[in-house]
Design brief:
1020 residues, eight-stranded mixed beta sheet, five-stranded mixed beta sheet, 12 helices
Length: 1020
């Protein structure tokens, strides 16, 4: 017994956990359904065969090729791209006990071993057998039927089994032998090898047996003349259902929950214990025409293949949806309420009110009998149903055919009724956008801003022993007698649009808001509960507490969170909760089933009946069993499919344990995970051992990893995945390979480099002494050459720093460096003896109205004028004199010593030379230009008695003379001259301020000519 227990434990560890099959008691159209056709990647719409391999790929056989499906993408195989596949028309598929996939085509049999396809030869080497069926016996042997008889696979060859029917199909190996379908009969091959023919009933004497199955304690045959069942006396037509007894049946399949699925062109039937549990004809909700194949994968999904409409997957999920299929006249539902008298569930929708009983709707209140057709809110009481519409309130009493208006409630008028609540003191509270109403003792009172409701647009009302809690579009309010006060406790924003309120069993208060954030209150403080805190984003319209969870339903769907998590979060023991989305409108990742939910803010937006939630949606009423939430326990299969090297894709298995080609350092790995329950929520991680320090999360929808410039070495690429419930594969898929080093990365190359380096050192040493002297000489020559070059560069740099780049003249920097030396030289000459009447002369020249030239003709024309003026002035000086650009349009001329009488001559020459020069503006225009000239001489006064005029003062004196010309008419020259009253010290002090005082008392005179008129007189 211990050995047996240990064996069972080991089997449990090795085999993956089984997922639940389809719930037998759920109507077929309540299952979640997904469809695939050519647009999604199927090779062709006729799905004739299905199977699943060990990794988890679903194999789909069509009339135009074989497809492998991982839940996201189809990969197609045809004889054109897969030579080992005999034909494109796939009639049968089977996964053997050894994990190989057998493919029966109309041109022969093939097997896929995980690496490639191999055609299985028949007798005498023929391969063109029309295979009609495949089956595996309890010992793992493979049997095949064909148009020419029955075959058994031995040593990967087809061996004929004599005595069987021709044509043959639907092989069924059992402990009592092999059963095979033929025309008009089922053939039984006994363990002794003898065949016996079991004829079909006379009504099916020429019928073809399409499928055979042992199920529910009987042997069943699907034939072209109906469904047959084997009894002791032979085959009998299945007469419990007239359709199944006479129409062609092409599909039989038993799932792990013992449902027998029967399909064909008529639709689909489900049999339980030999009886029809459900018939889904073509055209009915969930109906599926032309069924030819079925398969249940290891996650519990049921796959159906159609001759006409491709591939369908159905699974149970956690919900049922009651809509038009159950008699609802309009799909839009706004409110639900449980009838306290046990009549069922009241449902308010776009077209009045219906009653849901035993899974079927009965329309009770017509929209014409309501003030507004939308039954937006309901309150069910014993013998009475309150119906709040978008335009007023009505009451339906038991036994009455139509609802009525109560005169006492007339003040509510046509307001939309958001909330209907019977409080503990037997008052009826009616919440509307126009205020809150209380009806008690046949008296109606309205509460609004005057009673403390700062916003009278009421959405939700919760009755508590201490008073009402009222949720409005602008905050939460609490009842205090006949007044209301806003909840201002910390953490709760004042302007929230409150959509739902719920008091937990532990006393904490929870509210939902329209901004997709909830709040939980602990003591006197509120705590935000949204996506950042682990709660899926949602705008809750309904809260319920059950099975240790807080359930909420709203715009995005249905979520739940552990109540203990809320307590830990509210008290600060954790910063996040473990919220889950179980039904999601948008089909987000990790968000459960996709489906419509939920409608309308206010009360009556949900019912918890026992452990079942009932919720209004845009497609009827959805129900969820809170105790039936079973996450997918089956981990996905993971596989590394291909590797791209040097721009070409290679099968991953071909590289297992191999070295990459030479120079291949960039690699792209393509991988997948096989899971069919919400495959978009599959998570994948990968790493390259030997390169990546840790696992890398693959991006959503990305099933590739790329590495570039891999260094040489041995690597293992690993991929692991989890299903939609976060269950991870027990082990990763792996691909080991190596990147060989290039020659330059080998030890031989390093050794050769070391040897070469040693030789170079030796040769260098041998020639070092020879080259030393020559190198010394060369270095000395270089030093000399560089020294000269440096001196030349310094001279050029100095020259450049002293030159104006536009005119090529000396600049202000040159004047500042050179002029002091010239004056010092001249001063020494004066000190050494008389120099007669000679003096150095300074002339400051300014172009008249130069700004107009720039403004009218542009800066380019201005630059040409400056360049031409530089040439004119350069022509007026002697060797040893120099011209400098002083700044802008001002130029400075410095003349070496000349007779003082030449002052007027120099001024006239400069003014005349400029005025008579034609200035070419470069665009065919010639512009006359005049200038103003200010002159000064050095020394200004003879016998200075030790006082000297510096060069800056001389230029300043010339500038004062220039200013005099400009302010008195321009186009001329002027120069200040000393008089017998001139005091040099006074002149030095005044030249930087104002010379008018000296001019006024004849201590200084001015001479010149301005605009053709003489100025002053020469000094005596």
């Amino acid at each position: 017994m211990r050995v047996l227990a240990l064996l069972l434990l080991l089997i449990g560890l090795v085999l993956p956990p089984a997922a639940r099959a389809l719930e037998p008691g759920k109507a077929f159209h309540h299952y979640v359904r997904d469809d695939w056709s050519i647009q999604q990647g199927l090779p062709q719409i006729s799905v004739l065969a299905l199977t699943q391999d060990r990794i988890g790929y679903l194999w789909v056989g069509t009339q135009s090729g074989l497809a492998r499906f991982d839940g996201i993408e189809f990969h197609s195989y045809t004889p054109d791209n897969t030579p080992g596949l005999p034909g494109p028309w796939i009639r049968a598929l089977l996964t053997g006990r050894d994990g190989r996939v057998w493919i029966g085509t109309y041109k022969g049999l093939s097997v896929y071993d995980g690496h490639g396809f191999t055609a299985i030869p028949g007798p005498k080497g023929e391969t063109a057998l029309d295979i009609t069926g495949l089956a595996s016996d309890p010992q793992g042997g493979i049997w095949a039927t064909s148009m020419t008889g029955v075959f058994r696979v031995a040593n990967d060859r087809l061996e004929p089994v004599a005595g069987g029917p021709q044509p043959a199909q639907a092989p069924l190996p059992r402990d009592d032998g092999l059963w095979v379908g033929g025309r008009g009969a089922v053939w039984h091959r006994l363990p002794t090898g003898r065949w016996e023919r079991l004829a079909l009933p006379d009504s099916a004497a020429d019928a073809q047996v399409n499928r055979l199955i042992a199920s529910q304690g009987a042997l069943w045959a699907a034939t072209s003349r109906g469904l047959l069942r084997r009894v002791a006396d032979g085959w009998l037509a299945y007469d419990e259902d007239a359709t199944l007894a006479r129409v062609p049946v092409d599909m039989l399949f038993e799932d792990r929950d013992a449902n027998l699925w029967v399909g064909g062109d008529f639709g689909l039937a489900r049999l339980r214990d030999g009886h029809v549990a459900e018939m889904i004809p073509v055209g009915a909700p969930g109906g599926f025409p032309g069924l030819r194949s079925a398969f249940e994968d290891r996650e519990g999904n049921l796959w159906l293949g159609s001759q006409w409409e491709g591939l369908v997957r159905v699974w149970s999920s956690w919900t049922r949806r009651y809509s038009t299929a159950e008699g609802l006249t309009d799909r839009i539902v706004w409110s639900v309420a449980k009838d306290p008298d046990g009549r069922g569930l009241w449902v308010g929708g776009n077209d009045g009110v219906s009653l849901l009983t035993d899974g079927h709707f009965r329309h009770v209140v017509a929209p014409a009998d309501l003030p507004h057709p939308h039954a937006y809110n309901l309150l069910a009481e014993h013998g009475r149903l309150w119906i709040g519409t978008r335009g007023g309130l009505r009451v339906l009493d038991a036994g009455e055919a139509k609802p009525k208006a109560l005169p006492a409630l007339a003040a509510i008028g046509g307001a939309q009724v958001n909330a209907l609540v019977r409080s503990h003191d037997d008052a009826l509270w009616i919440g509307t956008p126009e205020g809150l109403f209380r009806w008690k003792d046949d008296q109606l009172r309205r509460f609004d801003e005057r009673d403390g409701l700062a916003d009278a647009r009421v959405r939700f009302v919760l009755d508590e022993a201490s008073g009402l809690l009222v949720g409005t579009q602008n905050g939460l309010f609490m009842q205090r007698g006949d007044t209301f006060v806003r909840d201002r406790d910390p953490g709760l924003p004042a302007a929230l649009d409150v959509t739902a309120i719920h008091r937990l069993a532990d006393g904490r208060l929870v509210i939902g808001t329209l901004n997709e954030t909830s709040y939980v209150k602990d003591g006197r403080r509120w705590h935000e509960l949204g996506a950042q805190q682990g709660e899926p984003a949602n705008a809750p319209f309904y809260f319920a507490e059950d099975d240790g969870y807080l359930w909420s339903a709203g715009l995005r769907g249905i979520t739940r969170v552990l109540v203990t998590d809320l307590a830990d979060y509210a008290t600060g023991r954790t910063s996040r909760v473990r919220g889950e989305m179980l039904l999601n409108e948008r089909g987000d990742r990790q968000a459960g089933q996709q489906g419509y939910c939920c409608n309308g803010a206010g009360t009556a937006k949900g019912v918890l009946d026992g452990n079942t939630l009932w919720l209004p949606t845009r497609d009827g009423v959805v129900s969820m069993d809170t105790h039936a939430i079973r996450k997918n326990p089956v981990p996905p299969g993971v596989a590394i499919e291909r590797v791209q090297l040097d721009g070409a894709w290679r099968d991953a298995w071909r590289l297992q344990g191999q070295a990459f080609p030479d120079h291949a350092r960039d690699a792209t790995f393509e991988f997948t995970a096989t899971s069919f329950v919400d495959p978009k929520s599959v998570q994948l991680r990968y790493r390259l051992r030997g390169y990546d320090p840790d696992w890398v999360d693959a991006d959503v929808g990305v099933r590739r990893a790329r590495y570039t410039n891999l260094p040489p070495g041995r690597y293992v690429f690993e991929v692991i995945g989890s299903n939609n419930a976060g269950v991870w594969a027990k082990s990763p898929a792996t691909l080991s390979f190596s990147v060989p080093p290039r020659f330059v990365e080998t030890g031989w190359f390093v050794a050769l480099c070391a040897l070469g380096l040693a030789l170079l050192v030796f040769v260098g040493y041998r020639i070092q002494r020879y080259r030393y002297q020559r190198r010394q000489q060369a270095l000395e020559a270089i030093v000399l050459q560089r020294t000269e070059a440096l001196a030349q560069a310094n001279r050029q740099l100095e020259e450049a720093s002293h030159t104006d780049p536009l005119t090529g003249l000396r600049n202000r920097r040159y004047i500042g460096a050179q002029l002091p030396a010239d004056l010092s030289f001249y001063d020494r000459q004066i000190d050494n003896g008389p120099v007669n009447d000679k003096a150095m002369l300074f002339a400051l020249v300014d172009i008249d109205h130069f700004k107009l030239v720039n403004d009218r003709y542009g800066h380019r024309a201005g630059d040409l004028v400056l360049q031409q003026l530089a040439g004119v002035l350069s022509g007026l000086v002697r060797t040893g004199d120099y011209v400098a650009r002083w700044g802008g349009e001002e130029f400075l001329l410095v003349f070496r010593p000349m007779p003082e009488r030449n002052v007027s001559t120099i001024g006239e020459r400069i003014q005349h030379a400029v005025a008579t020069h034609p200035f070419d503006l470069g665009n065919g225009m010639v512009l006359p230009v005049t200038c103003s000239v200010g002159l000064s001489q050095y020394p200004i006064v003879r016998n200075e008695d030790g006082a000297r005029f510096g060069w800056e003062a001389m230029i300043e004196l010339a500038d004062q003379a220039l200013y005099y010309v400009k302010t008195n008419g321009r186009n001329g020259w002027a120069s200040f001259r000393p008089t017998p009253l001139t005091d040099l010290r006074e002149l030095v002090d005044s030249v930087h301020r104002d010379l008018s005082a000296m001019l006024a008392r004849d201590a200084l005179r001015i001479i010149g000519r301005i605009a053709g008129h003489p100025v002053g007189a020469p000094a005596e």
